[in-house]
Write a structure and sequence with these properties.
By secondary structure, the chain is mainly β. It is 11% helix and 28% strand. The strands form two sheets. A six-stranded antiparallel β-sheet has the order 3-4-8-7-6-5. A three-stranded antiparallel β-sheet has the order 2-1-9, with no helix packed on it. The protein is globular and about 40 Å long.
């Protein structure tokens, strides 16, 4: 079980930029092809911008053509949580950081095999670490 990070809204506002706050804490989405990681190819680990939780290994990243960084799977089953999202008159599955509940993006069932999933994330909700690469 992941130990939760809980902060007051004012604390998140002080820690994050306005854009990071809007996406990670309020569920907004950054524009396609504008995020710093949509076409990023370095080896390492993508972490939560809010709490540093390790989320995705670069080895699972692929070009989905959507304009957002896409991954086949999270680092572990405990890294993220999913929940139904019925906003914007559609049904999707929201992906949140399991440690701090930051909104990361959505997961879809149209990814490459064998997983068949596309974790479509907002770059602004992620930090990247070259030194924190994991082998799976």
């Amino acid at each position: 079980m992941v130990k939760k990070v809980v902060k007051k809204d004012e604390d998140w506002c002080r820690q994050l930029t306005l854009e990071q706050y809007k996406v990670a804490r309020r569920g907004d989405t950054e524009p396609a092809f504008h995020g710093k990681y949509h076409d990023y190819k370095e080896k390492g680990v993508y972490c939560c911008v809010c709490c540093g939780n390790r989320l995705f290994n670069s080895e699972t990243k692929y070009d989905s053509g959507t304009g957002w960084p896409s991954f086949r799977a999270p680092i572990s089953g405990e890294a993220v949580e999913t929940m139904p999202d019925n906003s914007l008159h559609m049904t999707r599955t929201e992906v949140r950081c399991a440690r701090c509940d930051a909104h990361l993006g959505h997961v879809f069932d149209d990814g490459p095999l064998p997983e068949g999933q596309r974790y479509c994330m907002n770059s602004i909700a992620l930090d990247f670490s070259e030194k924190d690469s994991v082998q799976e």
